[in-house]
Every structure is written in C-alpha cells, then in structure tokens.
Design a protein that fits this description.
The structure is a homodimer of 138-residue chains. The first copy, chain A, has 138 residues and is mainly α. Chain A has 6 helices and 3 strands. The longest helix of chain A has 14 residues. Chains A and B meet through helix 1, helix 2 and helix 6 of A and helix 1, helix 2 and helix 6 of B. Chain A binds a DNA duplex (20 and 20 nucleotides) through helix 4. Chains A, B: It comes from Gemmobacter denitrificans.
Chain lengths: 138, 138
DNA sequence: CCGTATCCGATGAGATACTG
DNA sequence: CAGTATCTCATCGGATACGG
C-alpha cells in the first residue's frame, strides 16, 4: 500500500513531510546530496564544492547522511587515503525533492529578494580559494 | 563527468537548492506550509494540527514565513480576535517541493527505519497527552 | 588525503506564565 | 482567541589545531 489515501494518514498529514525533511535538515545536507546527484565525490572534492563548509561540518553532515542510509561512504585502504561518497538508492530516491528545491530556487532567486535569512551560494565572498592541491586521481 | 552538466548556474549548483531549503528550514516550517496547502487556517487550528509546536515556536515560524513572503497573515480586528494564515502565491509555488517531501515520506516511512534522528509525526510521544483534543470546537 | 578534538559563541527550542 | 515574556538548557555550527 503505497498510498494510504490522499485524504487519510496514519497520524498527521505533515508526518511524512516531517520525516522527509528531517533527513535533509541540516545546514549542508541538501546541498551535499544535490552535489552527489551528479556522481561520486571524494572528500576534498566536496570541500571545494562547498567552500564554506568546514571539514568538521562536512564530516558531520556526511556521517549523518550515511547513518540515515542516504549516502554511501567507501573507504579505500590505501596510501594516500581515498574516500568516496555516493548516493545510495534511497538517497537517489530523494532526487525529486532535490530537483524540486533546485527548480524553485532557480525560478525565484533574485526575483523576490531575501527578506530575513536567505543567503545564497554555499561559497560566498567570505574567502577565495585560489587553488587547492592538484588532482591525484588514482 | 562534468561537474555541472545540468545547465548554467550563477555560482554553485547547490546555490539554488540552498536558497530554497533555507526558506523551509526550521523545525515546523515545512509542516506548516504543507498544512496551509489545503487552505487557510487559524492560529489554534494550526496548533491542533501540530500539537508539539509551542505557541512561541508557532508564532516564530509563522512570522518568518510571513517575512519571507511565503505566508500571508490576515488579522480581523474583532472580538474575539481572529487571525488567518494562508499561503501566498510564492508560498504556493512551493507546492512541488512540499509534495515531493510528502511523497517521499509516504513511500519510505517505516521501510528503512529511522537511524539517528528521524522522529515521525509532529505529535510524538515525548509528553503524554492524556487529553486527546478530539473535535473540541471552539 | 581524510579526517578528529577541543573550545566556544550563537541560535534553537522547550516550559511556563501572563495579556489584550 | 491569539499571541508575549522570560528563563533556561541543548544543539548547531564556526575557528583552530592536530593525527594516522
């Protein structure tokens, strides 16, 4: 029974919404997942993609996503270390949500202003990272 | 594979996602908006719909949504007071996002367990509420 | 390269009581 | 009915430094 009913819910109608949003609630989770939609990423790749996210938060958010079964962490026991993050099937099933968010943002950014707390861009003008270490693709 | 194969973005691909999620980020915002999808609600109606949300938080979240232009607050200068909340057109444009969340939740609740922090239902068993507010018409 | 540990300030969010 | 006020604790999240 995929859908209980369009009018009937086990508890509150907002229940499912809450459960879903709780998973991507967190300062970086949705962005992380969005980035992972396009493929597997390494830790430092993600860091470059989200310049404002400290390693601590990066690890934190990634681990929670992993615990929630949305992200898969693959560790290669090698030197130098290599860790890859990718979306699990469950994580990928979030794609409609993520794309809906993306689509909404694309359609509305800059059109309505950002009244109270909407800062755009994961990497703002806080600090510029001219260059980071080269690519050590294994 | 290319990092940005979707189309072009102002800054980071996650930018739009971030902007969007920032608006519904907050413990109750998405649920509130979801409830408002089905129509205008009064303050205490919403309270009944989200039993776990204290009046303080309710006001807080509602006000932020209002400031962000997603929700419209209508005050009737009457006795007893009457205040109605409804979605603005902008708020309603969030419908795809909210429905995507809802749909995901419906499809996945109870199927994968809730590893670390997923509590379902706005009204959980945090505090025993012996008195179930049935249909107590005001 | 991929993280961890620690410190610490900012904010979130619950309880409770009061008001026009 | 529809909120406010205050107090407090918990958590989030940033900075920085270090480790395998």
């Amino acid at each position: 029974m995929a859908k209980a009913s369009h009018s009937r819910f086990d508890c509150n109608p907002g229940c499912a919404v809450e459960a879903a949003i709780n998973l991507i609630d967190g300062k970086w989770k949705s962005i992380l997942m969005f980035q992972l939609l396009s493929g597997t990423r390494r830790f430092n790749e993600l860091r470059r993609l989200l310049p404002n996210c400290t390693p601590r938060m990066m690890t934190n958010q990634l681990r929670e996503l992993e615990q929630d079964g949305l992200v898969i962490r693959t560790v290669y026991a090698q030197v130098p270390p290599k860790v890859e993050y990718s979306l699990s099937p469950l994580g990928r099933s979030m794609e409609p949500v993520l794309m809906a968010l993306k689509h909404w943002g694309d359609a509305n950014i800059g059109r309505y202003g950002k009244p109270h707390a909407v800062q755009t861009c994961s990497g703002d003008s806080r600090r510029d990272r001219p260059e980071d270490s080269g690519r050590t693709a294994a």
